[in-house]
Amino acid sequence: MEVTVIGTGYVGLVVGSCLAEAGNRVTCSDIDEEKIRRLNSGEVPIYEPGLDRLISHNLGAGRLRFTSDSSEGIRSADIIFIAVGTPPGEDGSANLGFVREAARTVGQHVRPDTVVVMKSTVPVGTSEIVRTEIRSQTDTSFYVCSNPEFLKEGDAVGDFMYPDRVVCGVDADQSRTRMEELYEPFVRSGNPLIFMDIASAEMTKYAANAMLATRISFMNQVAELCERTGADVELVRRGIGSDKRIGPSFLYAGTGYGGSCFPKDVNALVQTADEHSVDLTVLRAVSVANDRQKTVLVRKIHDRFGEDLSGMRFALWGLAFKPETDDMRAAPSRAIIAALIEAGASVAAHDPVAMDVARAYHLGDSIEYGEDEYATLVGADALVLVTEWLQYRRPDWEVARQRMARRIVFDGRNMFDPERMEALGFEYYSIGRRQVGEPSE
Ligand SMILES: NC(=O)c1ccc[n+]([C@@H]2O[C@H](COP(=O)([O-])OP(=O)(O)OC[C@H]3O[C@@H](n4cnc5c(N)ncnc54)[C@H](O)[C@@H]3O)[C@@H](O)[C@H]2O)c1
């Protein structure tokens, strides 16, 4: 099939490359000319495991191409995916400016009977807006359907290739048939391709993210209560996660959820509810709890050292909002670093892949960047662990002891064992567990 993907970001690039891998001829377009230039010169603009191999393989096979001129791909497409960004507006609602613009471009070049698929995460009713925008540009017949994306950054290729399920909102047999054909290679092992009406498909995406965010905020609040009552949130997590009705995923207490999806999608769903006079009290609380959680480590640091951190130096491990990605959108590290600097401290940070993105787009020269994680520890008053990258799991504590000015660790991911940290002579603070080691000064 001829497929065009409009918007070559985290989602569009993965979707386009995976569809090419399945034998389709795919054109990925983006208004960001620099991004297209880099892709055409063999550079992959984001870090996503396995994606570079997929892109080079399909570029080489002539099944994948990149262009900054969307019209090229639209004219020949059987299926067009709109995968542009839907960033939050000032009131928290999804900003549909990019979606509308992409839809008008589709309308200017679409050929008869093309299926136009909404891949971006959009509020219920947006597919109708897309239909109207396309219709404003053309009399050609076309179909609109909603196919929300559930991939996780860091495991995006695997999630697309082997999805738990694929959700498709359709209102015509023609679009259903074409989506069945397109997804057939990805649902062979019995994982369902679930067809439904368009509004339900749009809602499914938000409800999924809202549910996952709710589990995280719930566990973060349970963690706070654990600290006050002497319980251990890691034991509680195992205790409830083994219940089949609950399951083990998304029950980890930490520094709050971040990234480009959960914060914006929770707020957008609350906004949609407001517009329909439905008070989503649970989700409002989820968002408030998360905002507070992002500074949980900062509060622990102030409790330990006082409000004024002038002259203090912190090593910070992990900038990306989660491991295996370089995405720093709404990353907890940003809130933590801002608060530490605001209080007068300096920060030396390390991340296995996100330091270039951090320097270029988010933090500039406001912090130091370590060439490895141990370089950040020299003279540090404390280590702050923010992202649970695998390489941070078993640090050489002897090296850390030698380099740090004080043996203090604030662990936002409960990566280390309190008893072991105490035995190693560290003062150790984590989330929802007892603090160990006596403050020495
Ligand atoms: N990132 C994720 O993990 C993820 C997962 C599932 C769903 N989503 C949703 O998918 C959508 C895209 O997310 P993303 O993370 O890929 O965003 P992104 O910001 O990485 O990429 C969006 C791209 O669209 C391009 N664009 C904007 N307007 C365009 C136009 N008119 N024509 C061509 N290109 C245009 C931008 O230049 C950008 O490169 C969002 O709605 C998001 O909520 C994201």
3D structure, described in words:
- It contains 17 helices and 14 strands.
- The chain is of the alpha/beta class and 441 residues long.
- The strands form 3 sheets. The chain has a 6-stranded parallel β-sheet, with helices on both faces. The protein has a 6-stranded parallel β-sheet with strand order 11-10-9-12-13-14. It has a two-stranded parallel ribbon with strand order 7-8.
- Helix 1 packs across helix 3 (51-60).
- The longest helix has 32 residues, at 198-229.
- The radius of gyration is 24 Å and the shape is globular.
- 47% of the residues are buried.
- The structure holds nicotinamide-adenine-dinucleotide.
- Nicotinamide-adenine-dinucleotide binds at residues 6-12, 29-32, 35, 70, 83-86, 98, 101-102, 120-121, 149, 151, 153, 260-261.
- The site of nicotinamide-adenine-dinucleotide has 27 residues, from helix 1 and helix 5.
